[in-house]
Each structure stands twice: as C-alpha cells, then as structure tokens.
Write a structure and sequence with these properties.
Layout (H helix, E strand, L loop, with lengths): L1 H7 L4 H13 L2 H8 L3 H15 L4 E3 L4 E3 L1 H26 L5 E7 H18 L4 E7 L11 E7 L7 E12 L2 H7 L13 E4 L5 H8 L15 E3 L2 H9 L4 E5 H10 L8 E12 L7 H16 L7
Length: 309
C-alpha cells in the first residue's frame, strides 16, 4: 500500500520529457521540434506538471524562458530518472543472446550486496553476461529484467516472490558526529540528535521513537535540522560524512561499521519492516538466468547479509 501511494505521486512520463527538453533548450518550440509534438502540446504538458507539483517551473518572457528556482532544483532529478529509463530500455533491446541475463535491483542493494555476488557468479560461469539495472523507484513492469530483487513491505508480501532474508534496523552515525554532539548512550539521547531520513521511508524514525516511548514529533522529517536522501546508499553516505544519525536495514550498514566509518551507539533498534524478495523463476528461459537465480537464492540462504550485533 505504501509503495502504490508513492507511485501515485509521479507525474506522467510525457510531462517529464517535455519539461526536460524545454528546460535544456529554454524553448517550448525547440522542445516540441525535438519531441515531434506541437508547441501547444509541450506547453500544456508543462502547465499540467506545474499544477501537479504545485509551483512554476519556468518564468515565461515574451520571447524566451528561464527556469525558476523550483525548476532548477527539479531538473537534475528528472534528467537522472529519464536516463535510467533509457538505459533500462536499451538493456532490454540489446538482450538477444540466450546467455544475457538482466537483473533489476534497488541501487542501494546493488552497492552493498549484489555487485559482489554477481562477481562471484561470473567467476563460476564465465560464459554468462550479466546486466544490472539499479533502480530508485519501486515498481516497474516485469518485462524490465529476467530476475527482479525488491524490498517489499512485509504487509504486501505475495506468493509470486520469494523472501530471501529478514533484517534488523540499526541506528548509525560517524564517530566524528558522536564526538561533536556528545555520546549517544541510549534512546533518551535521540531527540537532541540530527536525524537523517530516507525519502519514501520517512515512517522509520517515528516508528523507532514510538517504540522507545519518545515524542514522535521530534522524529518528523520536516523538523528543524533534519536532512533527507532518496536512497539508503545516500543516507549511509550522509551518516558517514558526519551529518547525523540514520536508521537503516543492517545490510546497508555492514561495510561502514566494519571499516570504522560508522558506529552503532544504540545497536539494533527494531525489526526491519521490509523484506528482500526474489522474483519467481518459473518463466526464466535461459540456462544462465536459471543458474543465476539459483545462485542468488543459495547465497542469500547460506550467508544472508544481515548484521549480528
């Protein structure tokens, strides 16, 4: 339910393409020419997008355009998202050989687990070529990849996906941050800490505060001093940079804790409500895809990447 609500906030793709082209060229006319649309269609897309996000993206002069501060802030994220869609599409179109396997996986999980696993698989299966599509957004059509890994809220688990492991949430910060604000010796110290929130997972800190009997208002992502990032990988990077305290599934904190870039002054702070799942293997058509699916399942079962603290 939470994931479907997030996706309902996304504007139509054609609005984003029109905005990106117009922002890059600072011209509705040139954007329309590039997209093979009418100038009126591009202008209509922009107006609809501005209504969708609740603010103007362009200042419209008699013969030119300039981006507003909102437009300047929005443009890099839109360009990155469109580039990811383009790369994913190219990966599908290039997939012709029976030994090409495409895995779709949350980008943070790629960095903290999947990349090493694929390297080990490649050493055992040198003839198999693997493409990893790291994604930020949660949903995507099943045709995007042979194998799909997803972090699913436990309330939305279905029979079509195979749960791989269950993790614990851990509160982490850089040693330099604890030295700066004073020792965080227990939950009672959290209200004076700067909290780092993950966009799309903003219920985590209130959940932790509630479990410890702390005032939930202090855990609001809009509270003064709070900072946010759109992936767990980015949240970890902010924590390692000394920006505050983050709560993440243990899989994402392992490397930083082992290297000393992070510390866990409160240890585990509760069960993780998201479960890493693996898509069903029944429709896989190549030997390489079936072998990689078995390899992922075996690795996750024998050595789940969770913390033991």
């Amino acid at each position: 339910m939470r994931e479907r609500t997030m996706m309902q906030d996304l504007p139509p793709l054609n609005y984003l393409r029109s905005f990106e082209a117009a922002a890059r060229m600072l011209s509705f006319t040139e954007a329309a020419r590039e997209l093979h649309l009418t100038q009126a269609a591009v202008s209509g897309h922009i107006r609809a997008l501005e209504q969708h996000i609740g603010g103007p993206l362009f200042v419209r002069h008699p013969r030119s355009l300039t981006l507003t501060s909102l437009g300047n802030a929005y443009l890099p994220g839109v360009q990155q998202a469109l580039q990811q869609v383009q790369q994913a599409t190219h990966a599908i179109l290039r997939r012709r050989g029976a030994e090409r396997v495409v895995i779709s996986c949350p980008v943070s999980l790629v960095d903290h687990w999947l990349a090493d696993l694929v390297a080990r698989f490649g050493a055992q299966h040198p003839g198999a070529a693997v493409t990893i599509h790291g994604r930020v957004w949660v949903d995507e059509p099943p045709e995007i990849a042979d194998i799909i890994l997803t972090n699913v809220h436990e309330e939305t688990l279905d029979r079509a996906s195979l749960p791989l492991w269950r993790d614990q949430l851990v509160a982490v910060c850089a040693p330099s941050y604890q030295a700066q604000v004073g020792r965080l010796s227990g939950p009672q110290d959290l209200p004076r800490a700067r909290l780092i929130h993950s966009l799309g997972r903003t219920e985590v800190w209130p959940q932790v505060f509630r479990s410890f009997g702390l005032p939930v208002a202090a855990a609001d992502p809009g509270a003064e001093g709070a900072c946010q990032a759109n992936t767990f990988g980015s949240v970890i990077a902010l924590a390692e940079a000394g920006q505050g305290v983050a709560v993440v599934p243990g899989v994402f904190a392992r490397a930083g804790l082992a290297a000393g870039r992070l510390m866990a002054p409160l240890g585990q702070v509760g069960p993780c409500p998201w479960v890493c799942t693996l898509s069903d293997s029944s429709l896989l058509t190549s030997d390489a895809a079936r072998a990689l699916h078995r390899f992922i399942q075996a690795e996750a079962t024998s050595a789940p990447p969770v913390l033991d603290i």
